[in-house]
Amino acid sequence: EVQLVESGGGLVQPGGSLRLSCAASGFTFSSYEMNWVRQAPGKGLEWVSYISGSGTLVYYADSVKGRFTISRDNAKNSLFLQMDSLRAEDTALYYCVREWGSYDSFDYWGQGTLVTVSS
Amino acid sequence: DIQMTQSPSSLSASVGDRVTITCRASQTILTYLSWYQQKPGKTPKLLIYAASSLQSGVPSRISGSGSGTDFTLTISSLQPEDFATYYCQQSFSTPRTFGQGTKVEIK
To answer: Using CA atoms, how far apart are residues B82 and B75, in angstroms rounded to an integer?
Structure first.
């Protein structure tokens, strides 16, 4: 059974940092591209970042470029999101998401970890 | 960036109704279009990929169609478990953009 379990969220002051982790199991992690998607309270879904299976190719939303860094450790079946210079508008539930198939759909989602940026 | 626009933003319908949600891309995305369902407090669930392919385990009353810039999600006979928010998403290019969502409520 595919499982994605996020951790690392919490309350942080504006300008602070957090590192999110996602533990993957039930599939060959290194064979899949992965993403982070976030959802602000009461709002829609926003794609945040992408990483290829090998970790060599990464992409970011303009809203987080230069502040967030995505990475992965295939030996430990783990995905990460280093979040620096956090802003109030980064407050959201952050989902770890697996990308699948020829059309790059998001087929498995974690339960999410909540990040709250507030003083 | 490719903009995805869904309509309507919300709708009220009764059990048994046929429901149609549309999604328009700001430029062609071929058939790189997925649909997701999200219930309150739950994670999004993939319903449709490649614009019209039904994800495993999704009931056949749900279908998708379209290509290029105009897409449709149809629920042929709305069931109680279908009341949720639906999102379209393009995977033709990065950033992967979502529509703003369509909330399907009970009339």
So the answer is: 8
